[in-house]
Known about the structure:
alpha+beta, single chain, 7 helices
Amino acid sequence: MSLTALGRVTALRPKRRGRAMDRVDPHQVDFVGGDPESQTGECPAVWRVPDGAYIRGKTVNDPALIGELNTDIGKGEDESDVWVPDRLFPVIREAIDGTYDKGRQGPGQPSFEYLIEGVTRSVIRLEMRDAYDHTVEGFAAWKATGDISTFDWGNWLDIVRGAVARGVRWRRVRIVSEPLSEYMRWEYDCTVENVNAGEDIRWLPRTRAADLLLPPADCWIFDYRLIRWNFQRGDDTNPRTYAFSSDPRLVRDIAGGFEMAWDRAVPHADYKPAVGDPS
Length: 279
């Protein structure tokens, strides 16, 4: 029988001897290990600190289960219940015994290429912004000359072609204000390359999306099982750090919003950007 574990942890400020402990110096935090079979970008893991440990797992949200746990022991306002798979038990044992290698580092966030390699059916991209990084190579040249050839696509088009060739459906919806911003006019001109590589791209004016339940941030959805959130900075640049969720309820809601937007959106070949004063 496969065993699992529920744990109770104190968020950010663990308690020791009845008082709040100061935040731990990041240099004192040792990565012990993660779930060896995690494939989703969300990995249960363990870190050791001088007088305790941090454990990452799935947050327990079921009120009935939380109530049952509370009958065994009290729960503080700053404590959370988490679930971890039994595969993490050996890592927890290492943390307890101190047998892990000091200075060990985790694999970091999964690359986009890694995530795409695991996709078998569907890639969804939902874009909610009117501008991205204005310093990206090629944008200035387009503004000066209208030429899109100076943009460096890197291996992007090859990634799309490879996924589409093995049967993956690759769709993108852009929710945009009209008239289009200068940045989105550039993206509109460049989109022919995305389409030629195999992406199916549609455009939806923001005025036609106002009654849809859509997230405030851009995201990718892989095989209707994993969301990768993109949070741009206020200056439109990308910090290149991402948040992930595989909660099936959240994936259902976000994918459902995408599908409603997709049904209303205009295919790229038919979309003619509005010009002039929208009023």
